[in-house]
């Protein structure tokens, strides 16, 4: 079973090679050229990430990173997986893809069926990986796409399946020789990824960025225990201003600690563990053994935009579990070594609580 990881312009070519050595088999990247950002900025993304550090921005960057990955014998996929595009955006995406047609990406990761059909009509024959935004939630959904879209390389599964739902869809995939990919870490949508049409940008007052869902560790620093009630009696803008002030203070303190040699020299394993847990947020590690038994092609680690040190620890942990002959949930939890994290609430698939 392969590991696929996200990377971006914050990762050097040398760091990408470290990812390969740590066990990454495939990479996915985002590309936002000047011709897109000149029109839409970063508030409206063509690939569901609204911050510059999650992207590549120039042709030379793309050429270099794809060459590096292919020289390592790995695959690389390009994401254009926004859930919706207007007509002008369809035209612009086609123009962008034509401008990089000489770069040998192994597949495009797409969500929007309209864009898939437009690209096929325009002569783009490169394989498609269907993102969770495509709604790969049932056997019937997979059949629909197979009957209407040519050259699908892989389906990426949502993070809200129960074990029995996963077993049904993976059984169908094995029967039809369909490649499947599943997420292993990161925040799942509070609602439902494939039916979400909000923007993720920090400047956007989108539903999933509303005060009801912002970081619950930050809220108590600036609000009393009745903060949910308080925000409805005050302007929403005041909440965001307070939240931003607190977040800046936390980030400043974190930067000071990072720069402090004495703090850095302690090297406590507990700090490392906390960094891993922050990166994972929620996970599906306990399902890796089942994924292997069911024949999943790959597991996804959405790590683009983050620093390499903690990423390598996460990749190493996942690779170790994959290579363990019988990686029971108990073994996974022992390797992670955080009973409070492994309480069930942080598990995508609620294994083994839901059948």
- Largest beta-sheet characterization: 8 strands, parallel, barrel
Give the number of domains. 1
Q: What's the helix count?
A: 15
* Low-confidence runs: 261-267
Strand order in space, largest sheet: 1-2-3-4-5-6-7-8
Report the mean per-residue pLDDT as an integer. 84
Radius of gyration: 21 Å
CATH topology: TIM Barrel
Description:
This protein is α/β, with parallel strands linked by helices and 355 residues long. The protein has a single domain (2-201, 281-336), classed as TIM Barrel (Alpha-Beta Barrel). 45% of the residues lie in helices and 10% in strands. The protein is built from 15 helices and 8 strands. Strands 1-2-3-4-5-6-7-8 form an 8-stranded parallel beta barrel, surrounded by 4 helices. Helix 1 links the parallel strand 1 (2-6) and strand 2. The longest helix is centred in the last third of the chain and has 24 residues, at 236-259. The two termini are 23 Å apart. 31% of the residues are buried.
Annotation keywords:
TIM Barrel, alpha/beta
Briefly summarize what is shown.
With 355 residues, the protein is an alpha/beta fold.
Blueprint (SSEs and pairs):
Layout: E1 2-6, H1 13-22, E2 26-30, H2 34-40, H3 59-71, E3 75-80, H4 87-99, E4 107-110, H5 113-121, E5 128-130, H6 139-148, E6 152-157, H7 163-176, E7 180-183, H8 219-222, H9 227-233, H10 236-259, H11 261-266, H12 269-280, H13 288-294, E8 298-301, H14 308-323, H15 329-336
Parallel strand pairs: 1-2, 1-8, 2-3, 3-4, 4-5, 5-6, 6-7, 7-8
């Amino acid at each position: 079973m392969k590991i696929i990881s996200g990377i971006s312009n914050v990762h050097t070519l040398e760091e990408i090679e470290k990812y390969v050595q740590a066990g990454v088999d495939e990479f996915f990247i985002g590309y936002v050229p000047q011709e897109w950002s000149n029109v839409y900025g970063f508030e409206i993304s063509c690939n569901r990430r609204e911050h510059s550090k999650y992207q590549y921005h120039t042709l030379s960057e793309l050429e270099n990173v794809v060459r590096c990955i292919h020289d390592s014998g790995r695959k690389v996929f390009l994401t254009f997986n926004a859930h919706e595009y207007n007509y002008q955006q369809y035209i612009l995406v086609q123009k962008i893809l034509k401008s990089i047609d000489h770069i040998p990406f192994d597949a495009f990761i797409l969500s929007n069926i309209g864009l898939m059909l437009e690209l096929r009509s325009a002569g783009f024959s490169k394989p498609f990986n269907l993102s969770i935004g495509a709604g790969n939630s049932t056997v019937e959904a997979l059949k629909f796409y197979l009957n209407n879209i040519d050259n699908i390389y892989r389906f990426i599964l949502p993070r809200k399946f129960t074990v029995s739902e996963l077993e049904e869809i993976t059984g169908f995939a094995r029967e039809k020789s369909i490649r499947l990919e599943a997420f292993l870490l990161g925040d799942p949508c509070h609602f439902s990824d494939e039916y979400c049409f909000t923007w993720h940008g920090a400047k956007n007052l989108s539903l999933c960025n509303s005060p009801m869902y912002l970081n619950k560790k930050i809220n108590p620093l600036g609000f009393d225990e009745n903060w949910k009630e308080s925000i409805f009696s005050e302007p929403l803008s005041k909440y965001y201003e307070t939240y931003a002030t607190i977040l800046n203070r936390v980030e400043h303190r974190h930067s000071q600690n990072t720069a402090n040699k004495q703090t850095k020299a302690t090297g406590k394993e507990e700090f490392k563990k906390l960094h891993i847990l922050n990166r994972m947020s929620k996970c599906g590690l306990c399902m890796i053994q089942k994924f292997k038994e069911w024949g999943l092609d790959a597991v996804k680690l959405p790590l683009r935009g983050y620093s390499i040190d903690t990423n390598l620890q996460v990749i190493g942990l996942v690779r170790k579990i994959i290579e363990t002959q019988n990686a029971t949930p108990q073994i996974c939890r022992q390797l992670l070594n955080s009973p409070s994290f492994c309480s069930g609430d942080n598990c995508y698939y609620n294994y083994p609580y839901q059948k």
